[in-house]
Each structure stands twice: as structure tokens, then as C-alpha cells.
Amino acid sequence: MAYKRTQPNSDPLLMITIRRNDQRLQLERALSRIWHQPELLFERSVQDAFSFLVENRLGGNPVKPDIFIFDLEDGSCNHAALLETARMAPGLRHLPFIALVDCDSAAMRDRTYDAGADLVVPWPRLDTRIGDIAGLVVGSWLNTEPEEEESRPAG
Fold first, then answer.
1. Is 136 among the domain residues?
2. For the chain, how many structural domains are there in total?
3. Is 3 inside a domain boundary?
4. Quick check: helix, strand or coil at residue 6?
């Protein structure tokens, strides 16, 4: 079964990269306040997530998340380069990318937006910014016409 992008009024498919269990639980609780049963695909790093997506695409079972949430403090990769690459990849170019950061540095925020992030959210402000995350997903559903191979029926 190939995953496809969901439609408004349904639960989204979220690709999430996060290393720390305490932050994972915090994010899961926050997301459960806006969606009843989102489908969550967790990977430990951005590189692992891209490998997962590429493997599934090459295997004929493409996974099309509705949103990509990543922990920017994952020091194992160059996030700017990965974001720029993802913005050009088929199936990901219209996807909202949300960076979760430990600090609210203006320089880091600007670099992350310049690299292609749609939203930068400091962990301490996650609960107050959860509506912004939901808005990006709904905006993507309403404003993107996915290719035939990229859409999945709601349900």
C-alpha cells in the first residue's frame, strides 16, 4: 500500500526526527491536542528519515508525509543542505518543514528559514506554537495539488 497525502478533515501522516525521548513525548502530547490520531513516523535523524523515504520510493511503496518535523539540534548532519535538497525532491517539495530548536537565536532562525524551513519553533514555546503547525498542514492540504501518485484517500 502506497501512502499518499491526506485531505482536510482527516488525520495527517507526520515524519518526525527526534533523538530524545522526553522531547518525543512532549511533541506527541502537543500533536494529540490538534489531531485525534495522527500517523507518526519516527526516525532518529534527518539522514535516517531521508533514507527511509528513498528506500520506500525505490521499493515502489512511496511514503508521502503531510509534514516533516525535525529536531535541529541533531548534530549528525548539515540541515541547511538537507533542507535545500529536500525542497527539490519529488514528493517533498510542497511539504511543510518545521524545525524544532533548543534556543531562539535570531541567527539560527534566519539560517533555517533561508535553508527552506516553513516554521522554526523553540522547544520551550512548542505548546503555544502548536496552532501554527496545524495551520501549515491545513494550508498545505488546501493549497497544494498533489500529483496523482502522491495523494492517498482520507481514512
1. yes
2. 1
3. no
4. coil
Give domain status of residue 149, yes or no: no
Lookup result for grid cell 533548543: 102
**Measured between alpha carbons, how far is residue 21 from residues 8, 82, 128, 147 in Å?**
30, 23, 20, 35
* pLDDT value of residue 100: 87
* Torsion angle in degrees (nearest 10) through CA of 42, 6, 30, 28: -30
Residue 130 has pLDDT above 70, yes or no: yes
pLDDT at 142 over 70: no
Asked, for residue 40, whether it belongs to a domain, the answer is yes
Least reliable range by pLDDT among 4-13, 28-37, 90-99, 116-125: 4-13
3-state secondary structure (DSSP) of residue 59: coil
